[in-house]
Amino acid sequence: MQEYELLYLVGESKESELPRIREAVEKMVVSADGTFLAPVTEEKRKMAYEVKKEVRGTYIARRFTLPDKDERDASETAEAAHPLVVINRALQLSKDILRFLIVSAEGLPELKAIERVERPKMDSRGGRYEKRGAVRPMPQAPMAPKETAKPMSDAEIDEQLKEKLDI
């Protein structure tokens, strides 16, 4: 048995139909004599670019096995298409799947969810990102405690001026 990994993308507008789409993909693989393995990875993300007018989507990754050439039924003729060709064609014709990729799982790491840490958006200067036009308070300079002013006489003021101006 040869192991493969299937990654497909379903647009956000089809999110309500996700169980039906999953079931349809399973039928495509099972009809080509494939069997799905247990781990499933599913993640909703914003796409890097717009695909068929969709900006966000759900990525689903699954592993499945297909019989080797030797293991296929002897009743099949040599002219019959490889199961991957059948699955590939069915996925291409599906209107529910935006993009897909099938690769050999040999040498790939174990299929598991990616742990993501939400970080606040930062602007180019390293500060937190804020929408244009957002009002934020001005930073206040630290203020020294106010001293209460003593009433001074004219003579004291003149004396202080002479000291400062060296008259």
Task: Please describe what this structure looks like.
The protein is α+β, with helices and mostly antiparallel strands and 167 residues long. It has a domain at 2-104: Ribosomal protein S6/Translation elongation factor EF1B (Alpha-Beta Plaits, 2-Layer Sandwich), CATH 3.30.70. The protein is built from 3 helices and 4 strands, in the order βαββαβα. The chain has a 4-stranded antiparallel beta sheet, with helices on one face. The longest helix is centred in the N-terminal third of the chain and has 14 residues, at 18-31. It is rod-shaped. The protein starts with a strand and ends with a helix. The model has no long low-confidence stretch (mean pLDDT 82).
Q: At the fourth CATH level, what is the homologous superfamily of the domain at 2-104?
A: Ribosomal protein S6/Translation elongation factor EF1B
Count of extended strands = 4
The stretches of 5 or more residues where confidence is low (pLDDT under 50) are none
CATH architecture of the domain at 2-104: 2-Layer Sandwich
**End-to-end separation:** 104 Å
Instruction: Name the quaternary structure.
Output: single chain
Beta-strand fraction estimate:
25-35%
Main sheet record: 4 strands, antiparallel
How many DSSP helices?
3
**Proportion in helices:** 10-25%
Estimated radius of gyration: 34 Å
